Amino acid sequence: MENNLHFQLVQPDTSLTDFVYCFSSLQNFSNQHQAVIIPNGKIDLVFSKTKENQLYIALLGLETKPKYTQQEVSNFFSVSFNPLAIEYVFNCSIADIVNTGKLLPSDFWDFCIDDLNDFKEFCKKVIQKINALLPNTIDERKRNLFQLIAASNGEIPIKELSEKVFWSQRQINRYFNQQFGLSLKAYCKILRFQASLPHIKEGKLYPQLNFTDQSHFIKEIKQLSGVSPKELHKNKNDRFLQFLVYDQL
Prior knowledge:
The protein is of the alpha+beta class. It has 9 helices and 8 strands. It is globular and about 50 Å long.
């Protein structure tokens, strides 16, 4: 890969999969000036090291459009959280940081710059912290809600979802807007987009999921990635970092 971009991905133990999607490491990122981060329905906690050996820790909200980055960092480690973690790990709302993020204290969770020297040890430390923060019980409606949405790639009707988790449609939408800053429909659109990416990577440039037609498919892919399915498939200069995931899953 050009510029020797080095990517690693570690999936969590099954006990954490409701809360954590993966841990990742991206090194030699500073030369990837045209990199594009596209919506994936996850919330990222990013630990980045600058060329001046400074540590920056940021919590990134959900994204509804592509993000173009020129970060001058030598490497970064990140934890991609599933939405359920926002309430049960972070105990907060991220409604105010859609398509953006916020810097956290440089000693957040007792991390320091040296923790970015060893990815394996970094993962261990994060796992210990998450396990210490998780409560003994959680609302099973919410656990089931996200499991059903994920299993259907966002294509489950809200009426069916409401009936299966015994939670009204109005309450579900209120929860999404208050907790994440977007509607359930908008979130499900992101998951369907993500489910389309492996097909696009393989060169299947027509709908594999429940899009209305080819025109709808192209419009939605372009809205969330910034380019057509054909351009996304080409992934010129490895711009779309999300495609790195499919090489390691």
